[in-house]
Design brief:
5-stranded antiparallel β-sheet; 9 strands
């Protein structure tokens, strides 16, 4: 496992920071139910370089795709529109955070995936969510969310 159970990636000017925290009060290990809260912070850091295709500026999140793998290798794919019922639109320099939850049948696992964003010109692009770890030993998170 890497030094940190969290991840931080930048794709086409959008930084995604992902971190998770075990919730023992919500979990039932005797019933193979381990619940994690995860916090995502997305920041529009501005697109640079050829991978951005000269595009930059405001980007709006349209959808999400998660790959969740537990410690026994059981894989689950989750797709959906928006995040927590919202479709954040980020100008350069703006951030958006949200908290959601992931139950596992094992005491640890991983999550990774991608978001689909759309620029003001209608072009769509995929933003990577780097693999992060759902582990009981992860440091506690500041779970409050805030938009800026």
């Amino acid at each position: 496992m890497p030094d940190s159970p969290h991840s931080s990636t930048v794709t086409d000017g959008i930084r995604i920071h992902a971190a998770a925290q075990y919730l023992p009060q919500e979990s039932e290990p005797e019933n193979r139910r381990y619940v994690y809260a995860y916090k995502i912070t997305m920041t529009n850091v501005g697109a640079t370089g050829s991978s951005a295709g000269g595009r930059g500026g405001t980007a709006r999140l349209l959808s999400r795709h998660w790959t969740i793998v537990d410690s026994e290798g059981v894989r689950e794919e989750v797709r959906g529109r928006g995040v927590v019922g919202e479709y954040p639109k980020l100008a350069v320099g703006e951030s958006y955070s949200y908290v959601s939850y992931c139950p596992l049948a094992t005491s640890w696992g991983t999550m990774e995936g991608s978001y689909t964003f759309e620029r003001d010109d209608g072009s769509r692009f995929q933003v990577a969510i780097g693999r992060f770890f759902l582990v009981p030993s992860a440091p506690e998170l500041q779970l409050e969310t805030q938009s800026s």
